[in-house]
Amino acid sequence: xxxxxxxxxxxxxxxxxVVQNLLSATIASTDVIMLNYVGQSSISxxxxxxxxxxxxxxxxxxxxxxxxxxxxQYHGKGDLEAVHLVQGIALRFSLGAACAFALAAVLxxxxxxxxxxxxxxxxxxxxxxxRAVSVSYLCWGVSEVYMATxxxxxxxxxxxxxxxxxxxxxxxxNAVFIFGLLGAPKLGVVGVALGTSxxxxxxxxxxxxxxxxxxxxxxxxxxxxxxxxxxxxxFLRMALPALLNDVSWGxxxxxxxxxxxxxxxxxxxxYSFVNIVRQFGTVLCFAVGSASGIILGNLxxxxxxxxxxxxxxxxMIMTLLAxxxxxVIILCLIPLILAFADLTPEAAEYLRKMxxxxxxxxxxxxxxxxxxxxxxxxxxxxRFGMICDTVDMWGYALPLGFLAAFVLKLPxxxxxxxxxxxxxxKWPWVLRHYFSGKWAKNITRSDLYEGQA
Length: 453
Fold this sequence. Notes:
mainly alpha; 82% helix
């Protein structure tokens, strides 16, 4: 494999993304580790409140996908002006979404928490977290779009360095504010949110620094106010389905938490831990998925259609290997997590079974992520994924989960198992679309600036 130039290129793009994903998973797990010393309720409250962060992430990820779909192909074509125009269009949407979430977190945090749990203690803790973390949403709306632009231009190493800085800052600041180190107040749950917000500010400052030193890929706020009718239309046509896809997926996955959250506090605590474990198991898988969009997008932008199809096959091989590695990682983590987690016996048993389920669940997630969010979107094909995920999660998984939990009143683990069948239900349609090759298209325009001022 390493003798193949495509694999070497793919690994070079993938490894920095692996580091970024690993840092993200480590930050989340570190929060849980620190809160483990505060109490099980703190872990549960932050886990539920963080669903809104996950939803915003899906929105920003969908917008970033629109950037990747268009900017990677225009970068492959050598049109940097179009790359910056795409960035400006994306910033309009990302800042709008970030402002909306920040305002909601400040004004109605209790109402937001009631959607996930009826427990007064969890509502109060989660509301305090949401208020304090609201500032991070605004910074995130800018940094996520700029880093998506950098990744589209294959500057993944720069993004990794920025994420490392944010990671170190987050860990140190969380420790300071959770435990009251260095003379700071001991804030617990609020300390997690404050550390997150400050680290996002540091990340944004890092983006400004990189932009000031870059000769080509800059963070240009002026592009927000520039219009290009053709490019805006393409962004809406391609990015909007991706955005709706990711939001639909994110909201549906958050409702999984709501279903679990209404079963018992023990189930929520176990679910909080297993989500962190799954992140470590899918680090390699999702990195390959992200790299797929960049690699294939640049190839398609250069007009190399057949090369992109051949590359997609090799990326699928990498995905399967990554899924196998992820399963082993989760198996190895089971005894370590159970020994560390300060949970009730019932919550610990839930956690053990949930982790075992995830040893095979990540195979479904890995294949679907690489194909839907990577391969298909590289050619501008985001509509298929939107339809597939929406029908699967809203027409199958959520109704099944609500039926199992609240009508049939099945045990917690049966409810969780049924929710974890969602990825495999859509495999026949996803694989059929992949093998059809209809996704492999060059979506750049030669008439982009005609009639523009």
